[in-house]
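go over this chain:
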Amino acid sequence: SAATGGIDIDAGTGGITVDSTGVISIDGAATSNFTVTGAGADLNLLSVSGSVLVEATEIAALAIRLHANGGASETIQIHSDQGTGVGSINLLSDVGGITLTSTGLASADAINLEATLGGVDIDGALQVNITSSQAASANSVRIFASAADGGMDIDSGTGGMTLDTTGAFSIDGA
């Protein structure tokens, strides 16, 4: 009970079990951790019939960070098992923006947006920009309707449409 006192609990391979039919609260006034070590020793955070809230109130970059650092085949997955709505997984920023960045894969598919059964909508209240810095390629930016009977529709308002090129320009049709 002394202000500078502490409690140290050690256990062998039998472990420590804490069960309660009521609330359990673990609070710390200083930097704290819960660490699991050993190959294949997982840490599970589970709420049966309830929610899980991870919240940080510090004004800092990386206030909440999910970080995998286990090797070349590691992945991070955000998964919704039973949500059926268009917002089943929702990335929301109330004041700032959202950025997807891939810095380690130098290939044409470093970031993939894939909807195996539906479409992909890109809507913006302001400009929608698609920019590629790939040099010396006829397909630096490619919009492709891959179905044999697929089409493409480009509509423009009263602002019109401008196509500029410093190279050849071709419109072909059957």
Observations:
- The chain has a mean pLDDT of 91.
